[in-house]
Specification:
Oligomer: single chain
Strand content: 15-25%
Distance between the termini: 65 Å
Structural class: alpha+beta
Helix content: 25-40%
Keywords: Signal
Number of strands: 8
Length: 245
């Protein structure tokens, strides 16, 4: 894979505004995506531009040559980027900048449809199936993790060529965790609002100026359900039960 990338890029030649080993980025970096990989989803233009800016800003210490930066972009079921891991980026600031750029990426709409991918309802024979198809055989109705390679992004600056290879990982486990967290946080918020609308809103908390409802809300977030009561710092137990108006 790396060899094919290198062979493709050699045809570009090393374009540059300097011949020294350390690249001055005054020329500005250029960015493109490989035409040979048009069947792959592309990095959104706004993200590609931000990645180019990262190279302009932090790539000044790169020595002339060819680099491959690999990224794994983890996406939840709702299409939100929840984590970015990088490999092969030689400078910490450049690595951080590119991860932030990818963290802010808007996932292409066609990829979000893959969140609905589900396993077959019956076990299918392996004969004639691709490895990806065989991976979809198992328990019915269970969302599977899917990995999707994006088209390589090529950034050239002076005598330096950088290939940014990103892979999207749509994870079932992360999607479920995020969704479940959202649900109980919403429930805690509903209870807090109802508590503040009740006669309980005037009850004090364990320290001067604090509110009982807010203490109960904090405990709800910790225990993932509205508590019956809270324990004050002096050991006294106080009720979180309220009557809706």
């Amino acid at each position: 894979m790396k060899f094919s990338r290198l062979r493709t890029l050699l045809s570009f030649g090393f374009l540059g505004c300097a011949t020294m080993a350390v690249v001055p980025l005054g020329c500005g970096a250029t960015v493109r995506q490989l035409a040979q990989q048009d069947d792959r989803p592309r990095v959104p233009d706004a993200t590609a531009e931000r990645l180019r800016e990262c190279v302009d800003e932090f790539g000044g210490d790169l020595h002339r040559g060819y680099y491959t930066f690999d990224y794994t972009v983890t996406v939840d079921e709702e299409g939100r980027v929840v984590d970015v891991a990088s490999k092969g980026v030689p400078h910490a600031d450049l690595a951080a900048c590119t991860r932030i750029a990818l963290r802010g990426m808007t996932i292409p709409e066609e990829l979000l449809g893959l969140r609905k991918l589900r396993l077959s309802e019956s076990t299918a024979p392996a004969n004639g199936q691709t490895p990806a198809e065989r991976g979809l055989v198992g328990n019915p109705g269970v969302l599977v993790a899917v990995a999707i390679a994006l088209a390589d992004l090529i950034i050239e600056v002076g005598p330096v060529i950088i290939v940014m290879a990103a892979e999207l990982e749509l994870s079932k486990d992360i999607a479920v965790t995020v969704r479940e967290k959202e649900e109980w946080e919403k429930e805690c918020g509903k209870h807090l609002n109802a508590c503040l609308d009740s006669s309980r809103q005037s009850d004090p908390g364990s320290v001067y100026g604090s509110k009982r409802c807010l203490m109960c809300h904090e405990k709800c977030k910790a225990e993932q359900e509205w508590p019956k009561g809270v324990r004050f710092t002096n050991g006294r137990w106080a009720s979180c039960v309220y009557k809706s108006n």
